[in-house]
Structure formats: C-alpha cells, structure tokens
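Annex B. Sample input.
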Amino acid sequence: MAGQLVTLFAFTVMLFGPPLTAALSHVDRKKLFIAILLIFAASNALAAASDSFVVLALARIIPALALPVFWGTASETAGHLAAR
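Annex B, continued. Sample output.
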C-alpha cells in the first residue's frame, strides 16, 4: 500500500506538473508560495489524521499537484535573487 501511495504521488506530479506550472505562471510569486505552503500544511494534517487508504491517497494527491508548481517557481525565483 505504501508503494501505491508513492506511485500515485509520482504519477500525479508527472501528469499534472507541467500544465499546472504553466497555468499558474502569471500568479504573483509571493502569493503562490504562501498558498502552496498552506496546501502542504493542510494536506499533511489530513494525512496525519486519516484512518483510511482513500483519505490518505487524497492527502497525497493534493501536495503532488502543488509540488512541481512550487519547485518551478522556486527555481525561477532563486535565479532572479542570485547575483551574476
């Protein structure tokens, strides 16, 4: 079951990462970072409180949608912050 959760997470990141990152590229970075961190916190709280596989799977899908957006935005932000 743990392997299924890891596969579900990775498959979700692979499938939805590029389109979601492109779709959210116009959103203000600071607001996007805050929203994503709140999503991570809420989904981890849901995962900690889950008592069924379905709820735990949902709690893993939600951050899998936000993860590639976070890393794409964070990478771009780091590039802007770094000196030449």
